[in-house]
Design goal:
This protein is of the alpha/beta class. The chain folds into 2 domains: 196 residues, 3-Layer(aba) Sandwich (Rossmann fold), CATH 3.40.50.720; 41 residues, no CATH class. It is 45% helix and 13% strand. The protein is built from 9 helices and 7 strands. A 7-stranded parallel sheet has the order 3-2-1-4-5-6-7, with helices on both faces. β2, α2 and β3 form a beta-alpha-beta unit. The longest helix has 28 residues. The two termini are 30 Å apart. InterPro entries: NAD(P)-bd_dom_sf, Sc_DH/Rdtase_CS, SDR_fam.
C-alpha cells in the first residue's frame, strides 16, 4: 500500500524514545519532513531527522515556540502528533497524589497537546491536515496507582473528539490512538514505573517484564511494540482513511475485555 506522504511535513512531540521515536522514524521513512520535539537527541533520532528542537512542553510558552520554529523550518504543518506524556506511578493511590502531582501530570499529558494544537491548527487547517493524539488504554481503564494519568488521558480522548467535531468540516482529521502496555522505558527501565513495580513484587527487571502480558490480561501474550503504534499514525496521516475522524483506536493486545 502506498501512503503517498513524501514531501509532507509533521511535528512529533516526545520524540526522543519509545513511541515518539518510532513515529518519527516511520514518517521519515515515508518521505515526511519531521520536526521532532525531544529532551535528548540520540543518534537514532538524528538519523531519522535533523530537525530536532529541545523545548519544555509543560510550560505555557513552549508549545507555541515549537510550532513557530516548525513553521519556519517546514513552511507549514500537515500533521501534528501529540505524543509527549508520562505515567508516574502513585503507589499510595489518590490520597498520596498532591495538587502539584495533578497539575504536572495534566500539563504534560493534556495541556501540552492543547497548547500545541492551538499553535499548530491554523497551518493544519490551511493544509487540510491531520492531528493524532497518543492516548492510553488507561483512559478507559482507571487504576488507583495511575489516578491522575488515567484522568488526563481520558480528557485527551474527549479533547480529540471535540476537535474532530469542530474542525472536520474544514478538512482536518483528528484521531486518538490508545495503546495498552507497550515495550517502552515505562515498563523496561528500572528508574520508571516498571522498576517500581518490579521492586514491589521482588522481581528482577527481566522477570517482571516477562510476566507483564499475563498479569495484565493480554490475550496476545505480548507487549505492543512502538512500531505498531507508528504504523497506525502513518495510516491516519496518509489520508487513506479519509472518513476516519474523531476515532479512538485501541491497540492493547486484548487487555480491555468490554466492548
Amino acid at each position: 500500500m502506498k501512503f503517498e506522504l513524501s514531501g509532507t511535513t509533521a511535528v512529533v512531540t516526545g520524540a526522543s524514545k519509545g513511541i515518539g521515536l518510532a513515529v518519527t522514524q516511520a514518517l521519515a521513512a515515508e518521505g515526511v519532513r519531521v520536526v521532532a520535539a525531544a529532551r535528548t537527541a540520540s543518534e537514532e533520532l538524528r538519523t531519522a531527522t535533523p530537525l530536532i528542537r529541545q523545548v519544555d512542553l509543560t510550560s505555557r510558552e513552549g508549545p507555541a515556540e515549537l510550532m513557530e520554529w516548525a513553521r519556519e523550518e517546514l513552511g507549514g504543518i500537515d500533521l501534528l502528533v501529540n505524543n509527549v506524556g508520562a505515567s508516574p506511578a502513585r503507589p499510595g493511590g489518590f490520597l498520596s497524589t498532591s495538587d502539584e502531582d495533578w497539575l504536572h501530570t495534566f500539563d504534560l499529558n493534556l495541556f501540552s497537546a492543547v497548547r500545541s494544537t492551538r499553535a499548530a491548527l491554523p497551518s493544519v487547517i490551511e493544509r487540510s491536515g491531520a492531528i493524532v493524539n497518543i492516548g492510553s488504554v488507561n483512559s478507559r481503564l482507571a487504576l488507583p496507582r495511575l489516578v491522575d494519568y488515567a484522568a488526563a488521558k481520558a480528557a485527551l480522548a474527549n479533547f480529540g473528539k471535540a476537535l474532530a467535531e469542530e474542525f472536520g468540516e474544514k478538512g482536518v482529521r483528528v484521531n486518538t490512538i490508545s495503546p495498552g502496555p507497550t515495550r517502552t522505558a515505562t515498563w523496561t527501565d528500572e528508574t520508571a514505573m516498571g522498576g517500581d513495580l518490579a521492586r514491589e513484587a521482588g522481581l528482577t527487571m527481566d522477570e517482571f517484564v516477562a510476566q507483564v502480558p499475563e498479569a495484565t490480561g493480554l490475550s496476545t501474550g505480548r507487549f505492543t511494540e512502538p512500531d505498531e503504534v507508528a504504523t497506525l499514525v502513518v495510516m491516519l496521516a496518509s489520508g487513506r482513511l479519509p472518513n476516519m475522524n474523531g476515532s479512538d483506536l485501541v491497540i492493547d493486545g486484548g487487555m480491555l475485555k468490554q466492548v
